[in-house]
Amino acid sequence: MEDRTHDCLIVGAGPAGLTAAVYLARFRRSVVVVDTGTSRASRIPWSYNIPGFADGISGPDILRRHVEQAAAFDIVPRSANVRTLLAEDGGFTCLMAGESGERATVRARTVLLATGVQDNEPEMPELAEAISAGSVRLCPVCDAYEAIDADIAVLGDGSGAAAEAVFMRTYSERVTLLLSGGARCLSPDDRASLGGQGIRIVEEGIAALARDDADRMVVRTAGGAGLAFDAVYAALGSRARSGLAAALGAELVAADGAVVVDGHQRTGVPGLWAAGDVASSLNQVSVAWGQAAIAATDIHNHLRGA
Ligand SMILES: Cc1cc2nc3c(=O)[nH]c(=O)nc-3n(C[C@H](O)[C@H](O)[C@H](O)COP(=O)(O)OP(=O)(O)OC[C@H]3O[C@@H](n4cnc5c(N)ncnc54)[C@H](O)[C@@H]3O)c2cc1C
User: Fold this and answer.
1) How high is the pLDDT of residue 232?
2) Percent of residues, the chain, with pLDDT higher than 70
3) Residue 21: which residues within 8 A CB-CB, separation 6 or more?
4) 119-169 tens-digit pLDDT
5) Which atom of ligand 1 is nearest to the CA of 19?
6) 3-state class (DSSP) for residue 202
7) Stretch(es) of the chain classified as CATH 3.50.50.60
8) How far apart are CA 230 and CA 223, in angstroms?
């Protein structure tokens, strides 16, 4: 165990964690950042909705800029998995394991969880390549504008997928809902809403998804039909990486496991904040930035007893 007790431990080095790290460093706080290297931002092929980047920017470039900015304050994320957080002695003890299993313990007065979410992904070969090509998409708020007038499919079950298909009608007249679980997953209300919007529903279940050489998506239904789309939006939901918060007794949203926070990004556990996707249903880089700024400022004020 290190002798030192840091002002703040930040779990996660995505846009939320690294924004908070820079804010706290600029508040002259000692910060340690720990990360397992699976930021969702690393999967953004190219985004046109990041404020300030009119020509767009890739997710890896966003992360590179964050890392460079943090490095200017001597903050280099430690590559390790935070396994356990123990609340004790008015702070936290953090137990982590590196890639080769080596263990370490860090102490901090406060903790910011910026651990993001885990997407529920469609099963298909070369999914990462399909996401990179924009053939499979996970976030209509992010990039539906880039699918205007395209032939779009939404893949999922129930009301969530139905709502996403209706959302896509703002962008295209050709929207198809692919019911991954078959026809039983739609309520009469959903069905009426989809019908009213002219959205085709494929009810028979999906047997296979693939990307062709032109980056179009080829869908084989359970009944053997072959369909092709410019893009498939996976509306399969996500699960917040909130296990550390739950173990400390923080309240979670039942539907997706997101950490419940107040207007300062405080959880109900004294000394524990959460920011970014793990605490938000609008999973966006700009939201992660804003929440991190709010959390870091509140952490600093808390530490100085204001
Ligand atoms: C394909 C795709 C396209 C997207 N496009 C856009 C877009 O165009 N515009 C936009 O605004 N947003 C977009 N997003 C969403 C955006 O990527 C997220 O909103 C953003 O990355 C959230 O930042 P975060 O810091 O909260 O979480 P993340 O970036 O996911 O970072 C969380 C970090 O925590 C680490 N971590 C988790 N648990 C632990 C642990 N126990 N110990 C140590 N480290 C841990 C992970 O390894 C990860 O690095 C897109 C997402 C995807 C998947």
Assistant:
1) 98
2) 99
3) 10, 13, 31, 33, 70, 73, 75
4) 999 999 999 999 999 999 999 999 999 999 999 999 999 899 999 999 999
5) 25
6) strand
7) 5-118+238-303, 121-235
8) 21
Place of tokens 């394991």: 97
**Nearest ligand 1 atom, CA 285:** 11
Q: Is the pLDDT of residue 181 over 80?
A: no
**pLDDT of amino acid 182:** 64
Q: Which atom of ligand 1 is nearest to the CA of 44?
A: 3
Distance 222 CA to ligand 1 centre (A): 33
pTM reported for the whole predicted model? 0.96
Which residues contact residue 65 at a Cβ distance below 8 angstroms, ignoring those fewer than 6 apart? Answer: none
Residue 239 has pLDDT above 90, yes or no: yes
pLDDT at 183: 61
CB 164 within 8 A of CB 158: no
- CA–CA distance, 269 with 249 (Å, rounded to integer): 7
**Terminal-to-terminal C-alpha distance of the chain:** 30
Q: Above 80 in pLDDT, residue 255?
A: yes
Average pLDDT along the chain: 95
- What is the spatial distance between Cα 116 and Cα 18, in angstroms, rounded to a whole number? 12
Residue 153 and residue 165: Cα distance in Å, rounded? Answer: 8
Nearest C-alpha to atom 46 of ligand 1 is from which residue?
38
Domain 5-118+238-303 bears CATH identifier 3.10.560.10: no
Nearest C-alpha to atom 2 of ligand 1 is from which residue? 44
Q: Which residues line ligand 1 (CB under 6 A)?
A: 11-17, 34-41, 43-44, 47, 49-50, 81-82, 114-116, 119, 131, 138-139, 142-143, 241, 276-277, 283-286, 288
For residue 242, what are the CA distances in angstroms to 33, 55, 106, 115?
17, 34, 20, 7
Question: What pLDDT, on a 0 to 100 scale, did the predictor assign at position 280?
Answer: 84
* Residue minimizing CA distance to atom 17 of ligand 1: 41
CATH class for the domain made up of 121-235: alpha beta
